[in-house]
Amino acid sequence: LNSPGLGVRASGLIGRSWAMLFASGGFKVKLYDIEKQQITNALENIRKEIKTLEQSGLLKGSLSSDQQLALISGCTDLKMAVEGAMHIQECTPENLELKKKVFSQLDLIVDDKVVLSSSTSCLLPSKIFSGLKHVKQCIVAHPVNPPYYKIGLSPVRILKEIDGMILTRIQYAIISEAWRLVDEGLVSPSDLDTVMSDGLGMRYAFIGPLETMHLNAEGMLNYCERYSEGMKHVLKTFGPIPDFSGATLENVHQAMCAHIPADPAHLAARRQWRDECLMKLAKLKSQMQAE
Ligand code: NAI
Questions:
Q1: What is the ipTM, given to two decimal places?
Q2: Residue nearest to atom 7 of ligand 1 (CA)
Q3: pTM for the complete prediction?
Q4: Which end of the chain is more exposed for a tag (fewer CB within 10 A), N or C?
Q5: What is the 3-state secondary structure (H, E, C) of the chain?
Q6: Where is this gene product found (predicted)?
Q7: Domain count along the chain
């Protein structure tokens, strides 16, 4: 394949998934990490995942598993990893000082064309990229985890800089209220998750909260006429920011572990099941859009 290359910096959970996604589109990918072992583990893990996806008919793109795997390699030299790349996707841990250091290293060795992209969940682009010579080439491309099953389909643009951006803010709002409800003894942790997975969550794979409002009455104006007072009344009862520790943490932890023990093998198996569900859901979505 005579395709432009992409560099993925850091071979953790998100880095691996980006690498698979880029390769599925036919791009050459080089994985770089400060820990050599992380690269080895990532390549091994990617090989297994791509093969499993192919066997279950869920591999993305038009290339075979072997063709995709041939596009992904590891690299322990940063300069070589980014040489000739058209896009560099940084996936280092969520730490401002570390990310600033990583981008200032890249700033010294990249050309004036490559896109420098951070996977950050919450850090502000102005903080990460300030002072860089190549600042105009910098973006935040925050993936929904796992990126392989979501990204590349529906990019959205954030119009103004804000802490936590959009998806993370909505996710944190849900997590906070979930935590408060458990903390106040109103619902068990497992029932709370059921409310989302079997209830509220189903529609959100297809329509957003604003369209939900529009459809749940005779249009948006009518929804607000009918429900805004009730919503404001309930919203005023929302509690403060939880501290995510203490007895409630222990309670939630125990409940989660009873369902999925927190050892690497159980977590990996459950993630694999989740990823298969997401891939099937993605197929259903594209069928429904075509109808
Ligand atoms: P991770 O901890 O699995 O991987 C981080 C990797 O960075 C490790 O392999 C580590 O060895 C490597 N690393 C550390 N310092 C480095 C350096 N100076 N140069 C190169 N590599 C270095 O972390 P994960 O979960 O993959 O997260 C990465 C980023 O993606 C974070 O900014 C996170 O906020 C963001 N993100 C994470 C999501 C998630 O659900 N895990 C979802 C969306 C974004």
A1: 0.96
A2: 92
A3: 0.81
A4: C
A5: CCCCEEEEECCCHHHHHHHHHHHHCCCEEEEECCCHHHHHHHHHHHHHHHHHHHHCCCCCCCCCHHHHHHHEEEECCHHHHHCCEEEEEECCCCCHHHHHHHHHHHHHHCCCCCEEEECCCCCCHHHHHCCCCCHHHEEECCCCCCHHHCCCCCCCCCCCCCCCCCHHHHHHHHHHHHHHHHHCCCCCHHHHHHHHHHHHHHHHCCCCHHHHHHHCCCCHHHHHHHHHHHHHHHHCCCCCCCCCCHHHHHHHHHHHHHHCCCCHHHHHHHHHHHHHHHHHHHHHHHHHHHC
A6: Cytoplasm
A7: 2
